[in-house]
Amino acid sequence: MADKPATPTHRPQWQALVQHKERLTGTSMREFFQQDPERANRYLIDGAGLTLDFSRNRLTDDVLTALTELADACGLSQRKAALFAGDIVNITENRPALHTALRQPSDEDVRVDGNNIITEIHTTLARMEKLVAAVHSGKQAGYTGKTFTDVVSIGIGGSFLGPKLVVEALKPYWQGNVRCHFVANIDGTNIAETLSRLDPETTLFLIQSKSFRTQETLENSLVARQWFMAHGGAEAAVASHFLAVTTNIAEATRFGIDPGNIFPMWDWVGGRYSLWSAIGLPIALTLGMDHFRALLNGAHAMDCHFRDQPAERNLPVVMAMLSVWYNNFWGAESHAVVPYDEYLKHLPEHLQQLDMESNGKRVSQNGQHVDYQTGPILWGGIGANGQHAYHQLIHQGTRLIPVDFIIPLQSHHAVAHHHATLFANCLSQARAMMAGKTRAEAEQEMLDSGVDESTAKTLATHKEIPGNKPSNILMMNRLNPETLGALIALYEHRTFVQSVIWDLDCFDQWGVELGKQIGNEILPRLLDEEKTGSAGDSATDHLIRRFRSANRP
Ligand code: F6P
């Protein structure tokens, strides 16, 4: 009988980390900083326009070495090389995952089935460039000759979250007069509210779907087309107002999209890694093609950093290893991403899909059940707002929640001294998490402010903050197309490195299919009173009956 392949937990490097965790239990980051005045400098990495300060972690040099040894033993170098080379890294779908090729310069050579895909990628970029120029100049106009003023991007998941994040995050870089609106949800409110503000004569629709089979996207697209025609657009005008980005040319054509208006997607790009392809058209139309290319350049700079830097100086690798450290050795169940930048308000949503759809898995690459935790729950929101909401739990709750703080050194808006205040808030949170406040300090503070001794003693237990809570601070000089590109690519690679250590296929997403399947069985029962037979269980059947009676004419 063949030997069972080694799972990461059986590796000596994993066991060494178990020992390290035992050794570090009871120590504190406060001590680490006191013992090593150089700690802040040593645990700082620059790369691709970003700086990572990871000094506020339960980390020593020994632990960092042990983590790199684990990553090494799990085959990080080989898996990284396979990713960039276009090998089959998405095993269950038998595909490469070549989002890195989407941001490579035109003189590179990356082969899929013998063809250099860089040529196709740059031909598509040139087509996008032509479209953006034609729309911005008014050369490509609506059916009554009026210049397009609005783009409605219809797509969901990866065909929505990345473009929306980038469009909103780079508002200071918007060019031209086109404003983008996103429709994702099958909740009719989303499309009804969006269309109610628009003029069909000046609205361009982009149907964004890698598969062109996604129910939400197809139903919303049909509604958009009906609305367009009901408001004066002739059938023939659909051709000039509807574009699609998809791998499924046949379905898009059947829907009525002019083949000349279909931009390609490729099965070697995963949905959640696709904003760099023509799925990025909402970005290019809102920001202009130069800024879109700058975004690609920023991501490419991060790709080179990830490919070339040694593990302990490699931003995505260090962040991934720290995540594994807390997830698997300290019992952290979630990870928070807290950007101190209003423009990055959609980052946590994008990262939720990226990270949780990628690493929310329970079998290893060869299909064995894992005996360790995989992807944690990723959540977050913008600072400083979160400080007045959920940070209490981070500081004094019973759970360990590592946090990534993200902040640009310069703001796009010189409003009074807001940016200094914002920066102070970000630093204060990281410091409070790290240093906390001892009971004695809390008590002394109260005594100093005149509180009597007995009250001070009683309240001190409530005011004590344990500290020793880990956080990273990620910085860039300014949030711009290059640094945003690098930031998103950094999280893509962080996700990949985690999957290497956990031995997962991070490029498939079979778990989301069952819900779609069941939804398709329930829908006819909601729409058709005559449809009999159970939908599978009495609880579902009961609510189907409730829905029907609430919606009977
Ligand atoms: O439901 C999950 C998913 O398959 C995502 O992975 C994908 O990004 C999204 O649906 C949308 O898929 P498509 O682009 O094919 O419409």
Question: Can you offer a commentary on this structure?
Answer:
It is found in: Cytoplasm. Pathway: Carbohydrate biosynthesis; gluconeogenesis; Carbohydrate degradation; glycolysis; D-glyceraldehyde 3-phosphate and glycerone phosphate from D-glucose: step 2/4. It contains 22 helices and 13 strands. By secondary structure, the chain is an alpha/beta fold. It folds into three domains: 15-74 and 297-510, Rossmann fold, CATH 3.40.50; 102-294, Glucose-6-phosphate isomerase like protein, domain 1 (Rossmann fold), CATH 3.40.50; 511-551. The chain has a six-stranded mixed sheet, with helices on both faces. Strands 6-5-7-8-9 form a five-stranded parallel sheet, with helices on both faces. Strands 3-4 form a two-stranded antiparallel ribbon. It is globular. The structure holds 6-O-phosphono-beta-D-fructofuranose.
Distance between the termini: 65 Å
What class would the helix/strand composition place it in? alpha/beta
Give the second-level CATH assignment, the architecture of the largest domain: 3-Layer(aba) Sandwich
**Biggest sheet record:** 6 strands, mixed
Q: What is the beta-strand fraction?
A: 5-15%
- Mean pLDDT across every amino acid position: 96
Number of helices: 22
- Name the shape in a single word: globular
CATH superfamily of the largest domain: Glucose-6-phosphate isomerase like protein, domain 1
CATH topology assignment of the largest domain: Rossmann fold
Number of domains: 3
Helix content: 40-55%
CATH class of the largest domain: Alpha Beta
**Distinct small-molecule ligands in the complex:** 6-O-phosphono-beta-D-fructofuranose
Q: Biggest sheet: strands side by side, in what order? A: 1-2-13-12-10-11
pLDDT < 50 stretches: none
Radius of gyration: 26 Å
* Record field, number of beta strands: 13
Main location: cytoplasm
GO cellular component, one term: cytosol
Protein name: Glucose-6-phosphate isomerase
InterPro entries: G6P_Isomerase, G6P_Isomerase_C, Phosphoglucose_isomerase_CS, SIS_dom_sf, SIS_PGI_1, SIS_PGI_2
